[in-house]
TrEMBL record:
Organism superkingdom: Bacteria
GO function terms (MF aspect): diaminopimelate decarboxylase activity; pyridoxal phosphate binding
Residues found modified as N6-(pyridoxal phosphate)lysine: K59
Alphabetized HAMAP family for the sequence: LysA
Organism phylogeny: Bacteria, Pseudomonadati, Pseudomonadota, Betaproteobacteria, Nitrosomonadales
The species this protein was found in: Sulfuritalea hydrogenivorans sk43H
Catalytic reaction equation(s): meso-2,6-diaminopimelate + H(+) = L-lysine + CO2
Record-annotated membrane-spanning stretches: none
Protein name: Diaminopimelate decarboxylase
Record GO biological process: lysine biosynthetic process via diaminopimelate
Residue ranges occupied by any Orn/DAP/Arg decarboxylase 2 C-terminal domain in the UniProt entry: 24-371
Binding site residues for pyridoxal 5'-phosphate: G238, E273, P274, G275, R276, Y373
Gene name, Swiss-Prot/TrEMBL: lysA
């Protein structure tokens, strides 16, 4: 903490709040760059950097400035919609470095991605394969394809973000994959390129991902023996980050090491789809305390950010550390336990329970680790304009998304004649 309170890189958060208002998402270019370098370094350490493609999972945070920064660093992109495709292209991403995931790609989305010339479709069902074959045929092309296999591995994470169990809607059962590959290889407008697997998000233990990699590699070898030789292996994303001061996450190199060790001696190219681990701890949500409301059982601090800005606490009961931005604690009085809540009309509208803080109305708070699945999942619930987003770069701050204006929120609506 400096004299003028918390800083991101060289810039005081209090100054950002004064200039851009609150709530405001604040990202650090240096932190984004360092997170990406963490992956490159881990791959380099295993001699895999030259045959690996890091496809940033756009859903984690799709702001154009962030996509553009990763594109400049050499990243590819993992997309799940035509909207994300358009964003990546608008941000200067290379189409030949895009992989397209998702259980329900429409024919129009397939067409857009084929026309753009993406690297690969991660196909998630036998039916999707037929649709893609048909669409590629209508364009006179062959669609590059990986099958997303579901290895039935327990990722040991929150059930809402676990994707690799048999019960999940994602991918095809690994037991069925061999037959579907054979079918894929026989389709005239499909080019079998790779295999894909993503077992869930916010994984802190490297063992499930390594176990999934074993199952994937066994299938790759079995396919090769049958004459279906894959060019690349996509092991998805999922690496978790530290959300709580007292709950450290493994370093990127340590998390990836068991998986990478299995890939080092092989010939295939590798694809990774990290989202959260590239952006999560490079962003925070800056908010102001509007009202302090002592209660009989609990004391509430009502802030100007809410579940519509950051829905992870409401949705997953997720924890985000919350810290005071100001440095002048002397006049504040004793710390006490607060419920940090937003103004939205829902009891589930909270950003943190039971936080020990010394607060006055008007204080600024920083909700940490909010760079991933924060703004990307924000809504206009209660007709609240979505927050501004800024990126700090050394000593400068750039507005990368202006705050929405209220009139914009109903500009697409019309009344009956
Ligand atoms: C197919 C796919 N790839 C990559 C990701 C990115 O995951 P994470 O943000 O956990 O790295 C997700 C989201 O979980 C996903 O569904
Ligand atoms: N939205 C989730 C992650 C979803 C992962 C998407 N496949 C979160 O905030 O943790």
């Amino acid at each position: 903490m400096h004299q003028d309170g918390l800083r991101v890189e060289g810039v005081a958060l209090a100054g950002i709040a004064a200039r851009f208002g609150t709530p405001c998402y604040v990202y650090s270019r240096a932190a984004l760059t360092a997170a990406y370098a963490g992956y490159r370094d881990a791959l380099q350490a295993h001699g895999l950097a030259d045959r690996s493609l890091i496809c940033y999972a756009v859903k984690a945070n799709s702001n154009l400035a962030i996509l553009n920064l990763f594109a400049r660093l050499g990243a590819g992109f993992d997309i799940v919609s035509a909207g994300e495709l358009a964003r990546v292209l608008a941000a200067g991403g290379s189409p030949e470095k895009i992989v397209f995931s998702g259980v329900g790609k429409s024919r129009a989305e397939m067409r857009a991605a084929l026309e753009a010339g993406i690297h690969c479709f991660n196909v998630e069902s036998a039916s999707e394969l037929d649709h893609l074959n048909e669409v590629a045929g209508s364009l006179g092309r062959r669609a590059p394809v990986s099958l997303r296999v579901n290895p039935d591995v327990d990722a040991r994470t929150h059930p809402y973000i676990s994707t690799g169990l048999k019960s999940a809607k994602f991918g095809v059962a690994i037991a069925d994959a061999f037959d579907i590959y054979r079918r894929a290889a026989s389709l005239p407008h499909i080019a079998v390129k790779g295999i894909d697997c993503h077992i869930g998000s916010q994984l802190l233990d490297p063992a499930p991902a390594a176990e999934a990699a074993d199952k994937v590699l066994a299938l790759v070898d079995r396919l090769a023996a049958a004459g279906i030789v894959l060019e690349h292996i996509d092991l998805g994303g999922g690496m978790g980050i530290q959300y709580r001061a007292d709950e450290p996450a493994p370093a990127t190199t340590d998390y990836l090491a068991p998986m990478l060790a299995k890939l080092a001696g092989r010939r295939e190219k590798l694809v990774f789809e990290p989202g959260r681990s590239l952006v999560g701890n490079a962003g925070l949500l800056l908010t102001r305390v509007d009202v302090l409301k002592p209660g009989e059982e609990k004391h509430f601090a009502v802030v100007d950010a809410a579940m519509n800005d950051l829905m992870r606490p409401a949705l997953y009961d997720a924890w985000h550390d919350i810290v005071k931005v100001g440095a002048d604690d002397t006049a504040t009085g004793a710390a006490m336990s607060y419920e940090i809540v937003g103004p939205v009309c829902e009891s589930g509208d909270f950003l943190g329970h039971d936080r020990l803080l010394a607060l006055r109305e008007g204080d600024l708070l920083a909700i940490l680790s909010a760079g991933a699945y924060g703004m990307a999942m924000a809504s206009n619930y209660n007709t609240r304009p979505r927050a501004a987003e800024v990126m700090v770069d050394g000593g400068s701050v750039h507005l990368i998304r202006r705050r929405e204006e209220i009139a914009e929120l109903f500009a697409l609506e019309s009344v009956l004649p």
